[in-house]
Structure formats: structure tokens, C-alpha cells
């Protein structure tokens, strides 16, 4: 055979081989819209998709009516609890008109997996009227084609579709690139026991002080301030947060306040008599994930987790990994007198 013809034939076969093999990498191209092929990791790495946690069991592959099996885990939580993007990616499904199976968001993850969120809320808050519409289904700015980041609020827990006769929950699915549903349970469990330090997940778990401290309404307790309100008196500069439990929580200094709020526009002034009727609950701690902290008499640097839990950064390299080369500019001193507001958790050592 002529040498030139042989080389041409070999080159042509090589191109055809790679073209054919790569075209089958993502058979479900209806949800994957990227010209680059993203090879997924062996397992999904996610954050927990319901803000503040949920009640759930390993109900994957459990029997359902009509001979179906449950290719998901149901995460039980109150209506309107924020749903978070377990993984960043592009929204490929977010119907405007509610389908028979309820509102759904489907995200083509930036890791090559697909994440489905079903039974999103369809009710007006406080009702079961089915008339909530998009305003109470999806978070503002959420629609098909939008790119979201891990930990971003995308929707709200509900009971839409065939979940109307059940308790509110998020039906959460993970789909591998070949279209096979995989059991989310071990990845959800792992997300609740984060061994390193996922800043997006840490911040998402504490959107406000009620969530951070786990404050809830207390039955039989008279409340003299509006939960979530910022209050002060005319003669004292101290600012308090009104908790869901009806108690007031003081910001010990301006640095702590600045991790939760950017200005003082939301602060309401009340009388000294009104303030005296509200029981003192304690001190507010730094918002998780915003700053690194240390105490004035100890050079060790800590990251802040939920409810004032401090996690030691074992080495500067770990601080660099999570907060960048200028991590030392993110460190703030906690006065020794306030250190008792915090507790020590597991070190960050990976």
C-alpha cells in the first residue's frame, strides 16, 4: 500500500474512533449543555440541600404505587424551609406551570452528576391552597438556564404534585451521567458530618442568628419583641437581636455585629422599660464562615462553625487552602472575656 494512503487511512480511523467514543459520554444531552466533557468524580461531593437539616432515612428503592421504586431520599422539613443547591451547576429544568408531579428544579452539576429537587412548595404561606405560584416555589432569580453556586438558595420545601397527601418534604435525587439514579443517602450523611471546612455550606447553615443558635418558638412564653428584630435603647449603644425564643441576644462588639449585618439601618429604638421586659438570652457569636478568629493571649487561629464552635486551623497551609494567601488579614481577635461564649470543636487537619 502507498505510504501516504496508509497514513491518511490511519489518521481517519483515529479521528472516527475518538469522535464516536466521546459522543456517548453524556447520552442525556437534554440536560447537559456544555461543549466540554466533565468527567465526574467517583462519588458526589455535596452540601446538605435543606437549610438547617431535615429528618430522613435511607428510603432509596423503597416500593411505590404502580410498581415503581423510590429513586430518591425524602428529606422531611417544614414548608418554606429554604432548599439549597447541593452542588453548583446550571438549571436545566424549572417549569413555569406546575406539572402533575409538582414543581421541580433539575441542575446539571459542575461535577457531571445531575441533581433533582421535587415537591417544591406550591402553597401560599400558612395554607395548603395550592395557589402559591412561582413566588413561593423558586427563590428570586431562579429559572431555567441560570447558573447557581453550591449552597445558594434555589427553592422552598413543600408538598406539591403527588405529595399533597404527605408531610412537606424535599424529594432529592442524584443521577449519574449514564442516567442511572444513585442512592443519595451516604452523601447526605457525609454532608452533615463535614470533615474539612466547606465555607459555602457553613454559611448556608447559619443564614441568621435563630438558625445559628437553634432558637425556636417556646410554647407558653410571652414574647415582647418581633423575632429577628434588631433593638436598642436611646441611652445605651448596645444592640440586641430578638430571638425566636423571645429572648434578646447582645452583640458584644462591633466586629461581631459586622459579620451578620452591613449597616445599622434595621435597628429599632425602644424604651428602657420595653427592653427590661425582654429576658436576656446571651451573647451573639461570630457568623460562621465569615472571619477567622483568635484570642488575644493565644496565637492559634480558628475557623468558626455553627453556634460558636471553633475549629483550629492546624497549619497556615490549611488556612491558605480555605481563605487564600491573604488569610491572615481575615483574622480578628476575640477578647478573652468573650471566649467563654465559644466552644472548641474538631480541628481542621486535612
What does this structure look like?
It is globular, with a radius of gyration of 25 Å. The chain is α+β, with helices and mostly antiparallel strands and 350 residues long. Strands 1, 3, 4, 5, 6, 8 and 9 form a 7-stranded antiparallel β-sheet that branches. It has helices at residues 3-23, 185-192, 199-204, 209-213, 254-260, 272-276, 316-323, and strands spanning 73-76, 82-84, 89-93, 103-109, 114-120, 147-148, 153-156, 169-175, 181-182, 230-232, 240-242, 248-250, 267-269, 280-283, 292-295, 298-305, 309-312, 331-334, 343-344. The chain contains 7 helices and 19 strands. It folds into 3 domains: 65-193, Glucose Permease (Domain IIA) (Distorted Sandwich); 209-283; 292-344, no CATH class.
Question: Quick recap of the structure?
Answer:
This protein has 350 residues and is an alpha+beta fold. It has helices at residues 3-23, 185-192, 199-204, 209-213, 254-260, 272-276, 316-323; strands at residues 73-76, 82-84, 89-93, 103-109, 114-120, 147-148, 153-156, 169-175, 181-182, 230-232, 240-242, 248-250, 267-269, 280-283, 292-295, 298-305, 309-312, 331-334, 343-344. The strands form 4 sheets. Strands 1, 3, 4, 5, 6, 8 and 9 form a 7-stranded antiparallel beta sheet that branches. Strands 13-10-11-12-14 form a 5-stranded mixed beta sheet, with no helix packed on it.
Amino acid at each position: 500500500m502507498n505510504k501516504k494512503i496508509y497514513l491518511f487511512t490511519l489518521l481517519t480511523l483515529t479521528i472516527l474512533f475518538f469522535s464516536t467514543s466521546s459522543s456517548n459520554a453524556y447520552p442525556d444531552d437534554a440536560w447537559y449543555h456544555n461543549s466540554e466533557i466533565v468527567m465526574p468524580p467517583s462519588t458526589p461531593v455535596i452540601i446538605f440541600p435543606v437549610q438547617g437539616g431535615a429528618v430522613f432515612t435511607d428510603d432509596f428503592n423503597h416500593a411505590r404505587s404502580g410498581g415503581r421504586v423510590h429513586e430518591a431520599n425524602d428529606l422531611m422539613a417544614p414548608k418554606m424551609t429554604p432548599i439549597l443547591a447541593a452542588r453548583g451547576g446550571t438549571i436545566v429544568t424549572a417549569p413555569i406551570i406546575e406539572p402533575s408531579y409538582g414543581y421541580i428544579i433539575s441542575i446539571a452539576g459542575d461535577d457531571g452528576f445531575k441533581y433533582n429537587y421535587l415537591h417544591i412548595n406550591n402553597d401560599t404561606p400558612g395554607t395548603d391552597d395550592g395557589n402559591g405560584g412561582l413566588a413561593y416555589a423558586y427563590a428570586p432569580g431562579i429559572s431555567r438556564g441560570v447558573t447557581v453556586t453550591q449552597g445558594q438558595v434555589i427553592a422552598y420545601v413543600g408538598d406539591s404534585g403527588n405529595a399533597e397527601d404527605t408531610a412537606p418534604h424535599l424529594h432529592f435525587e442524584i443521577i449519574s451521567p449514564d442516567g442511572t439514579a444513585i442512592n443519595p443517602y451516604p452523601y447526605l450523611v457525609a454532608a452533615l458530618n463535614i470533615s474539612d471546612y466547606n465555607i459555602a455550606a457553613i454559611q448556608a447553615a447559619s443564614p441568621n442568628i435563630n438558625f445559628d443558635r437553634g432558637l425556636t418558638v417556646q410554647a407558653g412564653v410571652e414574647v415582647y419583641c418581633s423575632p429577628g428584630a434588631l433593638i436598642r435603647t436611646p441611652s445605651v449603644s448596645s444592640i440586641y437581636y430578638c430571638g425566636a425564643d423571645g429572648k434578646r441576644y447582645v452583640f458584644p462588639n462591633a466586629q461581631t455585629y459586622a459579620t451578620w449585618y452591613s449597616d445599622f439601618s434595621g435597628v429599632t429604638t425602644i424604651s428602657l422599660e420595653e427592653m427590661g421586659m425582654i429576658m436576656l438570652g446571651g451573647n451573639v457569636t461570630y457568623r460562621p464562615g465569615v472571619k477567622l478568629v483568635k484570642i488575644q493571649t493565644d496565637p492559634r487561629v480558628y475557623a468558626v462553625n455553627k453556634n460558636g464552635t471553633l475549629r483550629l486551623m492546624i497549619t497556615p497551609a490549611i488556612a491558605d487552602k480555605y481563605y487564600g494567601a491573604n488569610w491572615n488579614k481575615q483574622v480578628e481577635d476575640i477578647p478573652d472575656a468573650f471566649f467563654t461564649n465559644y466552644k472548641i470543636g474538631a480541628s481542621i487537619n486535612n
